[in-house]
Amino acid sequence: MNELLPKLNELKPITDTNNTFYECDFNDEFSKLEERQKLQVICDIIKATIYPNPFPNPTTEIIEMNGNCHTACEIAMEYLKELKLCKNVKYYMVRKRAFDPEDIVSIHGILIVEGNDDVLYQFDSTPFVGYKNGVVQPLSEPIYEEYAEVNDDMKKHIKLFKEIIYNHKNNIVDITRINKYINLCIDSLCFPILGAYCGNALKVLLEYIEDYSLKLKLEKLVLKLRPYSKVNIEKKAYQKKLLNKQISLWHEELKDLISSGRDLKRQ
Prior knowledge:
By secondary structure, this protein is α+β, with helices and mostly antiparallel strands. 42% of the residues lie in helices and 12% in strands. Helix 1 (35-49) crosses helix 3 and helix 5 (178-187) packs antiparallel against helix 6 (195-205). The radius of gyration is 20 Å and the shape is globular.
């Protein structure tokens, strides 16, 4: 288990009502909490411990707890197993919330956890802020419309995307491997849910391609894989879609806040 994460006997409830984190529901001994509350506490701990980094180093992200939602998934899987807080846990990529455009793409990853109460939960410990990020919610109340389990081959592709993007951001791309990188990225498209992540990696690789025809071909592919990227929004219809998506997101967050019964002024 990562040394930065606490053991169960080190978890102390927050009982002071004036504490900033009192509303996190961890107000009693951990063993006395309901299953969902236990998972939410663990989710919050992971989310708060990971340093948010959209471009993690795939060789050190886990031990350093420095990364994105996929880093969080890998850490959380091992942590939950170590603490014996689940019967089963699987790693998924997800896409499209109820208010998203039909063709929206995603690189987001979460866990599906079978709790010790036999309930399946969506477990999202990403360090980034966003709608339903950081939430533990029963799968019977789905947040997304598409869930794709991440198998071993997909994990290898995700690690490759991270390597390409990290090396580019740090100016250490091995030019001799560009063609191999491109071919591996293209291979990943047999898993449609990986399309957007693949598009991000290919966009980076475009900067190293000298063959004009190949570059043009890949540019078209990248635009297809990333339909909502800033460079790809030329029509008002797309802009309207994105605006409507954002308004819907704010509307959903406001509804959740109101229905929670919490102090709106404090929120």
